[in-house]
Structure formats: structure tokens, C-alpha cells
Amino acid sequence: MKKTIILLTAAAALASCGVDDIYYGEMYDPSSLTEAPYLIDWDAAADSVDVALIDNFMVKDEGIFWINNDPASDPGANWVNYWGQAHAMDVVIDAYLRIKDSDPDRAAEYENYMRLWHQNRANNYSGPDYRNDFTDDMEWIVLTLIRMYEATGVEEYLDYARDTYDQHIITRWTVDENGGGLIWSIESGRAISKNACSNGPGALCALRLYEFTQDEKYLDDAKMIYEWLSSTLYTPETGAVADNMANGVIAGGALSYNQGTFLGSAHMLYTFTGDRRYLIEAMRAAEYQMTSMSTDGIMNSETSNANSDNSLFKGIFIRYATLLALDENIDADFRKELSDFMTHNAIVCWTEGIDKSTYPQIFFNYDWTTPYTDYYKYYQPQVSASTLIEAMTRLH
User: Fold this and answer.
1) What is the pLDDT of residues 206-242, one digit of tens each?
2) Pairwise CA distance, residues 35 & 27, whole Å
3) pTM of this prediction?
4) Which residues have CB under 8 Å from 218's CB, separation 6+?
5) How far apart are CA 314 and CA 132, in angstroms?
6) DSSP structure string for 187-205
7) In angstroms, rounded to a whole number, what is the distance separating the alpha carbons of residues 142 and 90?
8) CA distance 263 to 281
9) What pairs with residue 195 in β-bridges?
10) pLDDT tens, position by position, 186-207
11) Which residues pair with residue 5 across a beta bridge?
């Protein structure tokens, strides 16, 4: 059963922001969660996707992940896989937090995967520690290390996160014709580019380090990074976050990766400072994803290739939008709209976007409306959709 429903936003907060106050989409009514065939046990669904991710893509004695489910077919491609390791491990952490009291044996197994992942430095191809030419790659690793510390209390994870940030991330802040900003990469030809993908996660790293150390320098860093991002790549009239700035010129359209990290850092800054300007900017960025980066209520794919970084991007938006939707200190109508939007995506993804008949050989597509059928299955869309399914266990 499909219904067209109209979801009202937090009009009081957004009416003066130049953002469309109404989201229209051909959507499953989220109340159908209580009706056949959409009666979904999200915990059971999450257990299924966690097992599928681990069984099909993880090297279990190393805690790291292959790009495809047949690593012998292309070992070279799997070797250069780094930044996605963070997001795959984040799904394992999601599962660990969900089951650690109800299934301690499986939780212990997942905690060991975290230990091995750290021991093998997340399959970093650049050296014995977590440093990497690409700033955003390191930032995602740092964020996952902090989550591992938060989940397990192992201080070493936080120590490595802090050291990587202090020595190899914030040191890439430069002032040039682009203003400030963290460079995308130190590789020749790329060091001139200041990207949303390096500055959004950079602000998040600083905020999470502030959360667990209470060192004010990290809050100052976060404000500095965010202010550059907000004043250059963010468009307040729409909520869109452009991709990059190089040679003083802004280029590239909005991507769910950038919308998610922008709203995530804005939301955390609001949490730590109480400044509602940050909250409004977070809500605008979320609204832009729902209104302008989705079709019939489903987030756009942003790629036509499963073996693509872009096929992981939607999960990044989901992770930080979930935190926004769960924050009881903000407008309830907006939170419901955002939660319903993600729930609609999850219902479609779980009921239409995957063939579950061959479990545990089940694979998600970059298009959440259609099962993936190619011979080689890739972990980027698997991680993105698994993040979505895990998020449902928190939203419902």
C-alpha cells in the first residue's frame, strides 16, 4: 500500500530561512510499520545485515574489510581500501552497542574485531600508523576510534585518535586565496583544494575530542573549521553544501556525505554552545537533503557504480541525521519529519531493495529501490544500507 503524505517541518524555526516549509513525496506511510507486509522487526533485520556484512566482507582474523565479496578477484583494489574501513567498523560498533547486554558472547566477538581493526591500523596502506595523504580518510578513522573508545572504554583508542588529529589533521589548516580551511590532501595537485569532505568531518573530530577531553582548544578548532565551511560552501538560502573550493572558486554540487557532516557538526556545536544559529543551519541542511536530493522520498543514489565512494555517502547522512532526529531538545515536528523520511527509506530498502532469499549472501545496491545482481558485490553500498537498518533500531 502506498500513500502520498505531506510532512510539515518545524515551520517556526525554518520559516525565515528560505527553506520550503513542506516536503512532498510518494511515501509509504510510516504507520505501515504496524501493518502487513511492513511489520518489520528492526532488531532482527539489523542482526541479519550485520552478519551479512561480516561474513561476506570481513577478514575476521584481522578485523578489516575487503571491498568485494571475492577478494581474490582483485587484491590490488582491496589493498587501497582505507576510508571505508571506518564506516564498516561503525556498523559493527552500532551492533555491539545494541547487543552488548542481550548477547554478551557476540558482543565480545565484535569487541575483538575492534581490537584487531586497531591492531592492523584499519588496513592503512600509507604506513604503520593512521596517517594518510587524504585528510578526510584520517578523519573518518579518528571518528571511529573515538566511537570504539566510547563503546569499550579502551583508552588507547582515544589516545590514537587524539594523536592523529593533533599531528596530521589540524596541521593541514592553511590560509590562502580560499580563506582558511583544511586541505583535502597533501598529494601534489590536490593540496590547493579545500573540500566539504575534509572540513565537515574535521569539525566533527574536534567536537568529539572536546566531548571526551574537555580541552577547549578542540572546541575552538571546531568553531574555526565550521565557520570556514559555513561561510564558503554552505548556502543559507537553501541549505545546500557545495563540494569544494580551489583557487578561490567554489565548485561541485551537494552530496549526502557533505549534507550529513555539515548538519552533524552544526548539531554538535548547538549542543555544546546553545547557539540556535547552528541548529537552524543543521535543520536547513537536512531539509535540503529531503526536498532536493531525493526522488519520491528516497535519497538519490549519487552514483551508477557500486564500487564507488559515492555508494557509501547516503549512510553518512543517515548517521548524523539520526542523532538530530533523536535530540529531544529540538522541535518535535521537525524530528518526526526527519525520522519519517529515514523510516520510509528503510522500509523501501528492506522490502524492495534486497533479495533476502539467499541469506547470508544478501547484498544491497547503491539504489535502495532495487536488489543488486552483479557478480561481484561491493561493501560500500552494503555499509551504507546497513547503517540505515541499524539506525532504525534507535528510531523505533
Assistant:
1) 999 999 999 999 999 999 999 999 999 999 999 999 9
2) 15
3) 0.93
4) 206, 207, 209, 210
5) 24
6) STTTTTEEEHHHHHHHHHH
7) 11
8) 7
9) 244
10) 997 787 899 999 999 999 999 9
11) 25
